Amino acid sequence: MRKLLLYLIIITTGVVFVARLFYLQIYNTSFASLSEDNAIKVIYDYPQRGAIYDRNARLLVTNQPSYDVMVIPRELKPFDTLEFCSILNITKDNLVKRLQKARVYSPRVPSIVIPQLTKDEYAYLQEKMRKFDGFYIQKRSLRDYETVNAANLLGYIGEVNDALIKKDPYYLSGDLIGIDGVEKQYEKELRGIKGVKRIQKDRFNRDIGPYKNKKFDTLPVNGKDLTITIDARLQDYGQKLMKNKRGGIVALEPSTGEILALITAPSYKPELLVGRKRSPNFTKLYYDTIAKPLFDRGLQGEYPPGSPFKTINALIGLQEEVIDLKEKVSCRMGYYYGKGQKLGCHHHRGPLNMIPGIANSCNAYFATVYKRIIEKYDTPQEGIDVWRKHAQSFGLGNYLGNDLSAGRPGKVPNSEYYNKVYQYPTYKWYATATISNAIGQGEVLSTPIQLANMTAAIANRGHYYTPHIIKAIDGKPIENENYTKPKITTIDKEHFEPVVQGMYEVYTNGTASFLQVEGIEICGKTGTAENFTKIDGVKTQLTDHSVFVAFAPKDDPKIAIAVFVENGYWGARYAGRIASLMIEKHLKGTISRTDLENWIFTHSLEEEYAKPYSGEPFKINQ
Amino acid sequence: MARSSVAAIDWVTVLLFLLLVSFGWGNIYSASYENETFSLTDFSQAHVKQAFWILFSIVIIIIIQAIEVKFYERFAGLIYVISILSLLGLFVFGKTISGATSWYVFGPVGLQPSEFAKACTALALAKFLSDMQTNIKLIGHQLRAFLIIALPALVIIPQPDPGSALVYAAFFFPLYREGLAAIYLIVGVSAAVLFILTLLFKPLWVVLAIAAVMLFILIKNRKQKPPYSKFLLTLVVITGFCFSVNYIFNNVFEQRHRDRFNIVLGKEVDSKGIGYNTNQSQIAIGSGSWTGKGWKEGTQTKGGFVPEQHTDYIFSTVGEEWGFLGATFVVVLFVLLLIRLINLAERQKSQFSRVYGYSVVGILFIHFAINIGMVTGLLPTIGIPLPFFSYGGSGLWGFTILLFIFIKLDANRVNEW
Question: Taking the model in full, what pTM does it have?
Answer without folding.
Answer: 0.61
